[in-house]
Every structure is written in C-alpha cells, then in structure tokens.
C-alpha cells in the first residue's frame, strides 16, 4: 500500500506492507486525513512522544471505513464509517484501537470527519476535564486560530462560558475568531493584551487559560489569570523554555496543569474518548461543534499540503484525501 513515510531522504510517499489488526485493533481503509502541527515537525525528522524518525509512517488523524477487525475488537463492524486518531494515519490503511475512534455522523463527509478527532478529544480534556470550566466562568485560549484552538473556544461557549477570549498574532485570523465563539480577540505579541483581559474581567483575570503557546507568554498568563484560577498547558508553540515568575504563580495561587497525549496509556486515551461521547457528542452530531476546512489536497500532493501548513497563512484544517 502507499504511505507517507519519513525516510533517509526526508518525507515521501512509498510502498509499505499493509498492516494486519491484532487484539483490539481495527484495520481502517483511510479516506481522508487531517494535518496537525506535530505532523509538520515529524516530516523533518522530529519525534513526537514515542513516534518519529526514519521509517515512521506519518500522520495521526483520519476518517475512513472499517476494513477488518482484530479478534478482540468490539463495537464496530466491517463497513462502518469511522474517524479517530493514532499513529500512521497517512496511508491507504491504518490500525486503530477499537475505543480510540468515533462513528462518523451520517451528515458528515470523510473530509469533514477527519478534522475533528484530535481537536475534540484534546480540547474537551483541556477545557472540561482538566480545566474544570463551569458555566458563567471566563476562559482565554492562547493560540486560538489553530484548529484545536478554534474547537476549544466552541467547547467553552457550548459549556456555558460567560466570556471567551482568543489570542492570535495574525490580524486576519484574529479578526475571524468571533465566528468561532470568541467575545474578545487579543494579539499576544501586543504588550497591552494582559490589560485588555483584565479590563474585560473587571480587573480580576480569567478563570481559565488554555495555553498552546507557553514560552513567551508564561508570565503574562500568570498576570491574566485570577487568584485561584487555572492554567492548562497543552502545547509549546512559543518554545519549550522561558523565564517563569514563581513568586507570582504562588501569590495568585494558580493551579498550573500540563496535559499531552504523548505520555498517556491506551486506557487513559480510551477514557478521554468515552468522556467526549458522554458529554459533547450530540453537539458534534448536530454540527454545533465543527471546524472549517482551509484546503483539500489529493494524497499525491501531500508535500504541497505541508508546504501550505508551513506557510502559516491558513485558518482551519488542511485535509488530504486518498
């Protein structure tokens, strides 16, 4: 089968053996894949958790049909239309754990379905489970114009947030954040953005920050969060190291939480998928929670899809179809 692999000469489409499902695995005939920032790094040889390096089939988000079941797989049958996340997505066939997938709603095509699994699981876990957002509270999403950021704002609004603030350093994308739930959009490179947040919250700061930027905004986040508020760190788009004001962190008694799928067990991931099904799945099915598609590429042009992502001018998901 054809697959997009990081090899000795970089990332390229090549032929590999079709996988066989074992245990609780499901073999998926992939129809469409969503690109994610972590994929971009892996096309350059970077590792993401335990995955990456020469020989790696790239990709982590897909939609397709069940082609074959492992002996212990339950809950789906051959021919079912599904979507999910996991390694080795950029291929004609991929393997998925039987509980790390969703049934794709009948009102979505494969291109639409493949945009959702990473965003809804990552941000439900960050905003609701770890962020403990309650109706009537305020939230700031750092890096809100990314696909997962757009979903975070929608989930926050759906769960009853009184005030949703989104940040983006790009003027065009910042101007569109209100389409996805933002009541206020700020530029995190503007030295005055913290003052804007404090003004919007009566001087107290937000109840919750979901931070995909980290690095350069770490101390500003502390100033923008209310006393006894929460910061959930889900990314490091701004860098992995920075100065941190420990005194301000202690003085404001902020609960600072780190989350990532990279170190989670399959049992933990299954629980996250179950929580999404129980809490927000009806909103996915009714399309209250959805992501825009910026551009769709055929699999043969997946390299161009990554060039488009690296140019960083898109809003919404970049999709590749097989």
UniProtKB/TrEMBL annotation:
Gene3D superfamilies: Medium-chain alcohol dehydrogenases, catalytic domain, NAD(P)-binding Rossmann-like Domain. Residues 7-320 form the Enoyl reductase (ER) domain. GO terms for molecular function: oxidoreductase activity. Pfam families: ADH_N, ADH_zinc_N. The keyword Zinc does not apply. SUPFAM superfamilies: GroES-like, NAD(P)-binding Rossmann-fold domains. Keywords: NADP. InterPro entries: ADH-like_C, ADH-like_N, ER, GroES-like_sf, NAD(P)-bd_dom_sf, Zinc-ADH_QOR/CCCR. This is Quinone oxidoreductase.
């Amino acid at each position: 089968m054809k697959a997009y692999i990081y090899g000795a000469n970089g990332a390229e489409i090549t032929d590999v053996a079709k996988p066989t499902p074992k245990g609780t695995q499901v073999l998926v005939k992939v129809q469409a894949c969503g690109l994610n920032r972590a994929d971009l790094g892996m096309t350059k040889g970077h590792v993401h958790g335990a995955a990456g390096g020469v020989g790696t089939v790239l990709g982590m988000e897909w939609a397709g049909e069940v082609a074959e079941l492992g002996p212990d797989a339950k809950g789906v049958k051959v021919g079912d239309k599904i979507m999910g996340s996991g390694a080795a997505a950029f291929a004609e066939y991929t393997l998925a754990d039987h509980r790390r997938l969703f049934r794709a709603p009948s009102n979505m095509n494969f291109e639409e379905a493949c945009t959702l699994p990473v965003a809804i699981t990552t941000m439900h876990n960050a905003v609701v489970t770890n962020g403990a957002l309650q109706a009537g509270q305020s939230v700031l999403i750092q890096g809100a114009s990314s696909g997962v950021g757009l979903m975070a704002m929608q989930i926050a609004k759906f769960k009853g947030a009184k005030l949703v603030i989104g940040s983006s350093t790009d003027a065009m994308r910042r101007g569109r954040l209100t389409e996805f739930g933002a009541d206020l959009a700020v530029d995190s490179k503007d030295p005055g953005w913290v003052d804007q947040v404090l003004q919007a919250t009566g001087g107290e700061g937000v109840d919750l920050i979901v931070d995909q930027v980290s690095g350069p905004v770490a101390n500003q986040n502390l100033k923008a969060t209310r006393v006894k508020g929460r910061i959930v760190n889900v990314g490091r788009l701004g860098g992995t190291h920075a100065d941190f004001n420990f005194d301000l962190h202690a003085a404001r008694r902020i609960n600072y939480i780190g989350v990532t799928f990279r170190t989670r067990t399959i049992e933990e991931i299954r629980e996250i998928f179950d929580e999404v099904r129980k809490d927000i799945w009806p909103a996915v099915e009714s399309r209250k929670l959805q992501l825009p598609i910026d551009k769709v590429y055929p699999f043969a042009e997946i390299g161009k899809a990554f060039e488009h992502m690296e140019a960083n001018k898109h809003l919404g998901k970049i999709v590749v179809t097989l």
